[in-house]
Amino acid sequence: MTLDEWSIDKSRLVYGLNRNDLHFLDIDDEGRLLVRIGSETIALEEIIKQIETEDEDRVGYTSSFTLRLPQLISYQVLKLKKTFESVMNQMGYTGKFKAVYPVKVNQRRDFVVQVLRTSPEYGLEAGTKAELFLIKSVLAKERHRLIVCNGAKDPEYLDSIAECIKEGYSIAISVESLHEAQMIVERFDRKTTNLVLRLKPYLKVRGHWSHSTGRNSKFGLSIHDLFDTVELLKKNDFQGCVSTILGHVGSQITAIEDFRVFAVFMTRVFQELREMGLSNLTTIDFGGGLPIDYASTHQPNLMELYAQSLLNGVKGELGNWPDGEVPDIMVESGRGITALGSMVMVKALEVRSVFPSVEGIDEDTKKEVDEASESIASASSVSELLGIWNESQVKKSWLPESMNDLRERERALASLRAGIRHQLSRLESPDLSSDAYLERLWYPDHIVIGNFSVFNSACDYVLVKQHFPVFPIIDLHVRPETTVRLVDITCDSDGEISQFHRKETEEIWFTKDFRPLTMTVAGMGQGIPVGRLENIHGSHFAIALTGAYQDVIEMNHNLLGDLPDVELLLTEEKKWQVRWLTGAESMEELLEEMGYVGFDIDEDPYMSDGD
Length: 611
Prior knowledge:
By secondary structure, the chain is α/β, with parallel strands linked by helices. The chain contains 18 helices and 23 strands.
């Protein structure tokens, strides 16, 4: 592929932009990464320049920051509500749709308040005593909203729930064990108690956290406990308190069709429990699981398919139930609501090369490389090229006698890798597939030092191998020159976020130095494509879809705390408002958390710009 054949549309496909859950990101004619809200766009480069100009003298200023996008949270809330209502209307389903937001996904006040501000019916879900008090504070003037209290409960948690009920809050208590049920019937008045029976779904689904289902799940009532709990409730005349059954099959369930089987299971339980005497049971709560399309690989109507799968399962299982008795549908989507709400802007402090320049190579090494190049040029298969590479590795495995010998060896290997990559790109695309051997040849030759900590800004990348899309914010209109690894400033080898999802194309597209940008079968690779390597130093990378969990499961590794927060809003007058919220955590604050006091340090621990 020549430079003339490249286009912005190709870049959109390579990076997954302007589609699915990255619909709010696009590229302008100058190759700048844009944020879109509604019909308006703004270049991230402009936001960064404004912050650098207006806020560089603030306490806690650093060149990287978290960009908050609250209007995208509203977008997701409304989209979820409209999607379910539309699917229900299309199917003629007469039950109501309800939703609660589990605050564990992101407890930041600006996130929680944005959900509530968007929809007057939306409820909240607490998983701990602390989260209940958080919710109580934000709902002090809206006590009609539903609060679902999940999680393991001790007497103090239950006492707090009872106090909230007395104060007029609308509380639904999930029952997750027989022991909890016993404590509830001993402490609560059945006339004012609303119960949710949380069940273990006895089925298998496919997704990142599919171990949340089945008999070994840590959540909910096992089947024998369910029968015993129902008997206990009936014995104490609490059967009329049960309004809802709840099941949760895990976060980020990517096999959408599995939700239909889940819905069939929950509907069967719903019917049987009503037949067992729980006549006030009206609602099935399907918990979370709605996925975010981090890799831009799902169908664009992913949320609609999710709603259809659940409702098809419920409606198909209900059969000929009388009108008016269909269950209401509740979901507890968290990731699907807040993931779009933030992205991390990482300043590129430095670009380091893994291999030395091949310029100045000595005559003996050049002769050796030229001989190998003839074999490379005549190779007609992947196996032949890998054989040449493996042979060169064996030849170069000796311990060098001097530093100069080591440099010449590295120059030779760099030349051979480049020649083999070039020849690989000439082969028929079906012959190439991503495997460990080829990935070594395609592995990036350049490391970008980013002014951030993966552990604090995108810790799920390390903890659970969650993929996050990463993009340079400039030069997106040209064919990428090469790929790079984005590493942080921690002293930890896991402090790197360099995965890149290669999209599927009929013919493989390559960078200028012949690393694959796409594959004939989509899959994950290493190396973030960059348009022009020379422009990376001093620029920024964007890590998108970090609004779910990353703020609340962060780690202060190497005492690198929170980055500054910047908020982006589009006003009713279609004007962009860039607002500094908070600075980075200071070294004094971080040291105090570790028990070291007596410091007077305003500075944050991140690097200076390094220009």
